[in-house]
Design a protein that fits this description.
404 residues; alpha+beta; 50% helix; 10% strand
Length: 404
C-alpha cells in the first residue's frame, strides 16, 4: 500500500494542495491515516478514495457544518447516487420542526423554490400548505403554524419569499399569488440541497456576468452571517449584520415598486428624491417638465432663488441597460439649454461605456442606477415609513466617577 504525504495526497487526487490541506484539517478524524515510527503522519489509498468522496460533497455546494453532519452518518465513501439520496433524507430531517423551534428564513429558500418548481401559479396560503407538507408538519403543530395567526413559520416563509422575489427567482402575478421564474428554476437545479441567499445571489451575479444579459435581474449580494461562525460573533455584530440585511432587502423591494409605476409618476418620485437629498436648497424648488414635450429633460431643479444654477434631470424607467448613446443624447439636451449640470436616473443599469463617457466630458453628469436609487430612497425616507425602533444602551461611566 502506498504512503502519501499531504502534498502527495493532493497531487495523486489531482486537487489543489491548499484545498486538500484544508480538508485534512477540517475532517481529519474521517480521513484514514497512520503514524510512522518517527511520529510523522502519512496517508494511504483509502485516504485517496475519501478525498474524492469529500470532493463530491463540496461539488454539491454544502457548507462545512453540513458536510460534518453528513459524515457522522456516512463515514464511508458512497456512490454519487447514494450521496444524493442520503442528502435528501438529511435535508428533510434537519427541517423537521422541534418543539418551540422554528425554521430559519435561510432554510426556506430552496424548499420554497421546490414547491413552486411545477411552474404553476400558487396562492400564498397554498404555498404554506405545500411547505408544511414538505417539512412533515402535522397535527396541532400544523394547525398552530398555518392557522394560528402570524406564526413564526409564516413570518419566516414570507421573509424568504421577499428575498427570492427581489432576486428575480419568484414573481408576483396578482395579489398573494406567485410563480417561479426561469432563473428560479436555474437556482433550484444548482442548489437542490439548500443555500443561503448570499450564495444564491453570488451565483446570480456570476450568471448575469457570463451571459452579458439585459434581463431585469438584481445582482445585489445580501449579507448574512455564516452559520459556521455564528458562535464567534457578538450580539452587537449580529444586530449590525441583520440591520444591513433588512436595509438591503428594503432597498431592492422599493426598487421593485418603482419599476411598476407609470413613467410620469416615476419622474415625480425622482424629483421628490433629489429634493429630499437637499438639491433645490431650502426652497425645494423643482418641477417636472411637460411629459409630451420634455425635449430630453424630465425634471428641473433650481438651486437658487433666481434660477441662476439649474440641474436638469432625465429619468428612465427601463429594463434594458442604458448605454453611451442615451447619455450622449442627454448631453445634447443640456447643450441646447446651455446647462452645466445633469442627473440621469434609471431603474436598470448603465454600461461601462456610459460611465466612461461621463468621466471625459466637461459637463457634470451624475449617473444613478437602480441599485443606488433604491438605497437613496431608503436613506432619505422617500416612499418609506418607520416600522419599529430599537434603542441599544450602554453604561455611562462618567455617572459613576466621583471627584475626590
Amino acid at each position: 500500500m502506498h504512503k502519501y504525504s499531504i502534498k502527495d495526497l493532493a497531487d495523486t487526487c489531482g486537487y489543489a494542495r491548499t484545498t486538500v490541506r484544508d480538508w485534512v484539517t477540517l475532517f481529519n478524524e474521517y480521513i484514514p491515516s497512520q503514524e510512522d515510527l518517527d511520529g510523522s503522519i502519512y496517508y494511504n489509498d483509502k485516504s485517496v478514495e475519501f478525498i474524492h468522496y469529500l470532493k463530491q460533497l463540496r461539488d454539491r455546494k454544502l457548507r462545512k457544518n453540513v458536510i460534518r453532519e453528513f459524515l457522522k452518518l456516512n463515514p464511508e465513501p458512497l456512490s454519487s447516487k447514494k450521496i444524493d439520496n442520503k442528502l435528501d433524507d438529511l435535508l428533510k430531517n434537519n427541517f423537521v420542526l422541534k418543539e418551540k423551534k422554528a425554521l430559519t428564513p435561510t432554510q426556506f429558500n430552496i424548499p420554497y423554490l421546490k414547491v413552486l418548481s411545477d411552474g404553476k401559479i400558487h396562492h400564498v396560503s397554498e404555498i404554506n400548505e405545500l411547505l408544511a407538507d414538505y417539512f412533515s408538519i402535522e397535527g396541532e403543530q400544523r394547525e398552530n403554524y398555518l392557522y394560528g395567526g402570524d406564526s413564526k413559520f409564516k413570518i419566516r416563509a414570507r421573509f424568504a419569499r421577499r428575498e427570492l422575489q427581489v432576486s428575480g427567482l419568484v414573481e408576483q402575478l396578482e395579489s398573494n399569488t406567485y410563480r417561479i421564474t426561469e432563473l428560479g428554476h436555474e437556482v433550484y437545479r444548482r442548489f437542490p440541497y439548500g443555500a443561503s441567499i448570499s450564495l444564491i445571489s453570488k451565483f446570480i451575479k456570476e450568471r448575469v456576468n457570463e451571459e452579458q444579459t439585459d434581463r431585469d435581474i438584481n445582482t445585489e449580494i445580501f449579507e448574512d452571517s455564516d452559520a459556521d461562525n455564528e458562535n464567534d460573533i457578538t450580539p452587537t455584530e449580529i444586530m449590525d449584520d441583520q440591520f444591513k440585511r433588512i436595509n438591503n432587502l428594503l432597498a431592492l423591494e422599493i426598487l421593485e415598486k418603482v419599476k411598476k409605476v407609470n413613467p410620469k409618476r416615476f419622474e415625480e418620485i425622482v424629483l421628490d428624491l433629489l429634493l429630499a437629498m437637499g438639491y433645490g436648497g431650502s426652497l425645494g424648488s423643482g418641477q417636472t417638465t411637460d411629459y409630451i414635450k420634455d425635449e430630453g429633460v424630465d425634471a428641473i431643479i433650481k438651486e437658487d432663488k433666481l434660477g441662476l444654477d439649474v440641474i436638469y434631470v432625465q429619468a428612465k424607467r427601463w429594463k434594458n441597460t442604458v448605454g453611451r448613446p442615451d447619455i450622449q443624447a442627454f448631453t445634447g439636451s443640456l447643450e441646447g439649454k446651455k446647462a452645466r449640470k445633469g442627473v440621469f436616473i434609471t431603474t436598470s443599469r448603465f454600461t461601462k461605456e456610459a460611465h466612461e463617457f461621463v468621466r471625459h466630458i466637461e459637463k457634470k453628469i451624475i449617473l444613478i442606477d437602480g441599485e443606488l436609487l433604491g438605497k437613496y430612497m431608503l436613506e432619505h425616507n422617500v416612499g418609506m415609513s418607520e416600522d419599529r425602533k430599537y434603542i441599544v444602551k450602554k453604561i455611562d461611566t462618567d455617572y459613576f466617577n466621583v471627584e475626590e
